[in-house]
C-alpha cells in the first residue's frame, strides 16, 4: 500500500434514509467516471444489500448479451476492474478493510453499516471512519432520529479522542420538488444551532433511485458494475454530491 485510503460511511440509524443507495451511486460514479479507486465493505448484516446487488449485477452481466457487451466495452476502455464489494460484519469491518488496502491501493473505502449505535462493534467501526455523511429528509421523525445519532457520534465518539473521524456532515436526501422549500431553512437553522454541518448539494426524490439493471435494458442508474447513465444522472445531483464530497475530504484532483 503506497497511499492511505479514506474510510467513509453514509451512515444513519433511520432505515429507508437512502444510505445504501447513496453508497452505491457515489462509489460507482467515483470509480467508473472520475477515475478513483474505491472499495465497498458491506457489513449491514443480515441483508448485505450491496453484496447481493453485486451478485445480481454479475449474473446479468454474464448472461445478458446487452450488459455483457456494456461490461466488455467499459472495462476495456477504463482498463480497470470493477471495485471490490466485501461481505463483512461490524466486528470484522476494519480488519477486512485493512486487509484489502494492504493488497492494493484505494483512494476511498466505503462502509455500509447497520443503523444502530447501541452495538459496541458498530461504535468501533464508526470510530475508525475518516468521514461520516448522514442522509436526512424533511420528516420530523427522520430528522430527530438522525440528530440524536449525530449527537452520539460527536459527544460519545469524537469527544473521547479515540477516533480517526475528521468530519461529520448531513445530506438532504429525497427532497421533494426541484428546489428546497422554506421548511428546509428552518430545519437547517436548528441543525446549525446544534453545531452540525449540511452539505450544499441535495438529492431529489425520484423513482430512478430504485432503478437497477433489468432485462428490459432501461437506463442504468443504480449498479455496482456501471455508473449512472448520463440521461439518468442528469437532475439526480449524484455527480454534484460526489464532487462536493471530494472537496470536503480533500481528494479532488487526485484521481
TrEMBL record:
Residues 9-211 form the CobQ/CobB/MinD/ParA nucleotide binding domain. Transmembrane segments: none annotated. InterPro entries: CobQ/CobB/MinD/ParA_Nub-bd_dom, DNA_Partitioning_ATPase, P-loop_NTPase. It comes from the Bacteria. It holds the Pfam family CbiA. PANTHER family: P-LOOP CONTAINING NUCLEOSIDE TRIPHOSPHATE HYDROLASE, PARA FAMILY PROTEIN CT_582. This is Cellulose biosynthesis protein BcsQ.
